[in-house]
Request: fold
Amino acid sequence: MKPPFLCVIDRRVWPGVILISMLALLTVFLFQSFGVLPIFLFFLFLHIAFFRDPFRRPRGEGVLAPADGKVVEISLCDEPRFLGCQALKIGIFLSVLDVHVNRMPWAGTLEWQEYTPGKFLNAMEPESAIKNESNWLGFRNGTETFIVRQISGLIARHIHWDIQQGERLGRGDKIGVICYGSRTEIYLPAARFEATVKLGDAVKSSETVLGNWKGYAE
Reply:
């Protein structure tokens, strides 16, 4: 079925719209000139574009990218918090030009969530995954478990998630938003998952397949 809108704007756009509009009106009032309005309109356009939420229909078979961006890390690590095993971690960097809506890579129920305060280092740096503010979301689907981690960046200072513990989501459903340049990671049991994505690949949430569960058959 064709969606009613190909793209909507996330509701969190409004505080910025109000702030930019008020600053524009105040500047016009103080300087008695409309010459500065194009500058404010430009920033208003960028702000609204950042919160775009395009319609995405899950494609292909397998585990999907949870975010738009560039794959900057594929590594093995221990994950004792929720998976309780060695995990394959795939890190995706989101520039300010990317869509910042996070979506479900695989269907599952949210069983664990942990917010971790921290710094706001450049999300391109591997150190940011250790020291930056982040939000951990652990999901279970039958015997399969996985984690989606939202990480703030140098410019990103707000992490939003729209789901509650115990809520079940489908493949491609919306999880939340990270504001202004950030990083999203997915952790999967290394013994159960085989990645097909490579370092440097450009990915899109709900459209790019990262890999699949070993032995999985549709």
